Every structure is written in structure tokens, then in C-alpha cells.
Amino acid sequence: MGRSTYFDWSTFASPSGVTPTIAGPVSLAVSCGYSASADEARTASATDVVRIARAKRARKFTQTVAPEKGPARSAFARKTRYWSTARDNVSDREVAVTNSEEFDRAIEASHRALDQIARGDPSGFFDLFSSRKDATLANPFGPPARGMTQIQEAGRRAASNYRDGRALEFETYAKYVTTDLAYVLEVERFEAKVGGSDEITPVALRTTSVFRLEGGDWKLVHRHADPITTSRPAESVIQGIRG
After folding, report:
1. DSSP readout, 162-195?
2. Which phi and psi angles does 123 have, rounded to 5°?
3. Residue 178 in 3-state DSSP?
4. Nearest-CA neighbor of 123 among 133, 131, 114?
């Protein structure tokens, strides 16, 4: 709640065929978290109706019509209309299931990317990451990275430690999906030749991956990976600080 966005009135259509009368600049309070200021809504015509085309599921919202000035303000201020809106007549449940299925495919893609990492190739993860500046990566081989340039540098550095490996299994501890954000907590297990060793060694990483829906695709916006998969004594924290 509380976010503001500019409504593109050209994308809206009446879900019921009813055309409300909108007199002058309006203030829109939308229960799904979107709002438009009076200035932004000034170009609205009498035939404009509010449909949240960007919403990924059916939503019910409140439209408060309130002229900025004049005696009519008090009369309009408490008037509300409830509109049931839907995207292509798809129900909340159907959209939720679709989002979850699409997110599962994104997770599968991240598993394939780990298989590539075990062979020294980080390109699969680069394809998963968001290109936006707020994307972040924290792996066991260096400080957190922010933005694609740093992410690629950190990813290449991490992948250079592995070769001739393969992914083994993935234990999912938690997963949650919303309309535009999702995360998964896993323990990733793989084997590879690590560092300068010529022996295949098992590796386990505790990972948290956060995805954001961008342009219809789930993109990775944060990945954290560390080798802590079992209980450790307090001294291990001190050792980490000293290291």
C-alpha cells in the first residue's frame, strides 16, 4: 500500500459496460496499492473507466471521486463505486496457479544454471538475473555485488573455482509466490573439482533466491549462497570476522 503510479488511461476498459461520469480532476484511492494524483488524472474524460490492466489477477477496488475545489467536493467525497475487474476473465486462483507454475520453471532454470556453474560456466545465472541496477548477488567467494557488471565479475570469480562437476540434488525448505515477487530457500548439492584439486568433491550451499516478475518473466533480483548447512559453534562466527 502507499505506492503511487501514473495511470495509462488508454489501457483501461469497462469490465461491465457501465460508463461512470467523471467531472474534472479526480483522486483515486485503489485498494490494491495503486493511486493517481489529481494532476495525473486531469486528462481523464467522461468515458474513462478504471480497470487495473496491470494487475495480474482479479481485484475489487474503491474509486473515490472528489473534485479538487468547490461546493460539490463534500457531496462527492464520500461517494464510492465498486468495480469487479479481471484480466481476460481469469480468476484469482487461476492466476495464482499460473504464477506458481511459471515460478517453478524459473527455479528449474536456476538448477540448470548451477549444473553449469559446477562445470565452470556462470552464463546460465547471468541469463536469469534482472538487468536492473538493484539486482544483487552474495556468494561465498567475495563481498556482495550490485548491478549486472559487479554480478558478472563475482559470478565469473565463483565459477572459476569449479570444473568437471554436476548438480546432484536440491532440498527446498521454503517457497512463496505473490503477484510480482517470489522467493525460494534451498540447499543445493553438487560435486566438482574445487580450486586446484583433481578430485571430485561434494559441495553443499545454503541459498536464498528472490525473484521479481518483470515483463512477464521471473527474474532473479537477489541470490545469497553460503556453505553453512549444519549447526556450527559460536567460534565459527569469530573466525569468519577474523578471516
Report:
1. EEEEEEEEEEEEEEEE-SSEEEEEEEEEEEEEET
2. -60, -35
3. coil
4. 114
Query: Residue 159 maps to which CATH number?
Result: 3.10.450.50
Whether 145 and 137 have beta carbons less than 8 Å apart is answered as yes
Helices within the chain (DSSP H only): 72-77, 92-117, 123-128, 147-159, 235-242
| Host domain of residue 147 | 92-242
As a whole number of angstroms, the distance between CA 180 and CA 191 comes to 33
What pLDDT digit, counting tens, does each position of 193-206 carry?
A: 999 999 999 999 99
- Residue 49 CA to residue 11 CA, distance in Å, equals 10
Last residue of a domain, one of 90, 122, 150: 90
**100 and 50 in one domain?**
no
Q: For the whole prediction, is pTM greater than 0.70?
A: no
C-alpha cell at 164: 568437471
Question: Per the structure, how many domains does the chain have?
Answer: 2
